[in-house]
Design goal:
By secondary structure, the protein is an alpha/beta fold. The protein has 3 domains: 105 residues, 4-hydroxy-3-methylbut-2-enyl diphosphate reductase, catalytic domain (Cobalt-precorrin-4 Transmethylase, domain 1), CATH 3.40.1010.20; 100 residues, 3-Layer(aba) Sandwich (Rossmann fold); 84 residues, 3-Layer(aba) Sandwich (Cobalt-precorrin-4 Transmethylase, domain 1). It is 40% helix and 17% strand. The strands form 3 sheets. Strands 10-9-11-1-12 form a 5-stranded parallel β-sheet, with helices on both faces. A 4-stranded parallel β-sheet has the order 3-2-4-5, sandwiched between helices. It has a 3-stranded parallel β-sheet with strand order 7-6-8, sandwiched between helices. Helix 1 packs across helix 11, helix 4 runs parallel beside helix 5 and helix 8 packs parallel to helix 9. It is flat. It starts with a strand and ends with a helix.
């Protein structure tokens, strides 16, 4: 019988997600329907459906946007070829790439231009990885694990550098980096680790409360990398964890013999989903619902410059 719910802090939306979602909302206000969005603006089903209801049209590729149309690029970043395609189609583009992802793109370009072979630590097929590799495909090699590192082979004298996807597990990445440094002691490292502050903070918050809980529910969609990592962090710490999109996916059999449940949310999951899960537990007689700790994040990112410029122009003309 569940008696207590502990809410991880911080959890949910990060600054990059808030910026991306607001970018689509403000673009709809400014230009009206339709505003096209390449890929999911962020990896959350509920966010995508709400934006669709407001007039956003999600497409897989920029080539699906009618010529001259307005398109927002998602928070996960794009390869240069996407921008080139958009120019050919004379699309009005708004780039909502998270600034922390942009930083990794800049590193990839810089290392490649300096003659390095770049080892990218990330998950094959993830949109962020596809975009980053597109910056210098001839110079970037992807590894997903320490085992992948062992299989690497480079000609003598190859200058190496590494970068990482921003939404990985801190612990998992540390193991891959250690393997790289052991095999290639001269490998060049970025000045600061690429894993984003929000990903790190949410993983840290889960680790902090594992001793207090017997089950963790993570609010997030299946394709959300950072949400999946939260599940892995809990399980690595010996606590069962499940990823759910919302309260309708909770299986009551998970709660058998459980006294305290922890709840967190991935960086692309809105807080109202956490509230809905709390209400689900309240409806089953659980009244003891409290934050485990209160940790504030004060990071903010400004809207994309092209959107800020046109919003200012619209205000001036109003």
């Amino acid at each position: 019988m569940v008696r207590r719910i502990l809410l991880a802090s911080p959890r949910g939306y990060c600054a990059g997600v808030e910026r991306a979602v607001e970018t689509v909302e403000r673009a709809l206000e400014l230009y009206g329907e339709p505003v096209y969005v390449r890929k999911q603006i962020v990896h959350n089903l509920h966010v995508v459906r709400e934006l669709e209801a407001r007039g956003a049209v999600f497409v897989e590729e920029e080539t699906e946007v009618p010529e001259g149309g307005t398109v927002v690029f998602s928070a996960h970043g794009i390869a240069p070829s996407v921008r080139a395609n958009a120019e050919v189609r004379q699309l009005h583009t708004i780039d909502a790439t998270c600034p922390l992802v942009t930083k990794v793109h800049v590193q990839a370009r810089r290392y490649a231009s300096q003659g390095y072979t770049v080892v990218l630590i990330g998950h094959a097929g993830h949109e962020e990885v596809v975009g980053t590799m597109g910056e210098a495909p001839e110079a970037i090699v992807l590894v997903e694990s320490a085992e992948d590192v062992e299989a690497l082979s480079f000609p003598a004298g190859t200058r190496l550098a590494y970068i990482t996807q921003t939404t990985l597990s801190v612990d998992e990445t540390a193991g891959v980096i250690a393997a790289l440094r052991r095999r290639f002691p001269e490998i060049h490292a970025p000045k600061k680790e690429d894993i984003c502050y929000a990903t790190s903070n949410r993983q840290w918050a889960v680790k902090e409360m594992l001793a207090e809980i017997e089950l963790l529910l993570v609010l997030g969609s299946r394709n959300s990398s950072n949400s999946n990592r939260l599940v892995e962090v809990a399980r690595a710490g010996g606590v069962e964890a499940y990823l759910v999109d919302d309260e309708t996916e909770i299986d009551e059999s998970w709660l058998d013999g459980v006294d305290t449940v922890g709840i967190t949310a991935g960086a692309s999951a809105p807080e109202k989903l956490v509230e809905r899960v709390c209400d689900w537990f309240r409806a089953r007689g659980v009244d003891d619902i409290e934050p485990y700790r209160l940790v504030a994040e004060d990071v903010e990112f400004r809207l994309p410059v092209e959107l800020r410029r046109e919003l200012a122009l619209a205000e001036a003309q109003a």
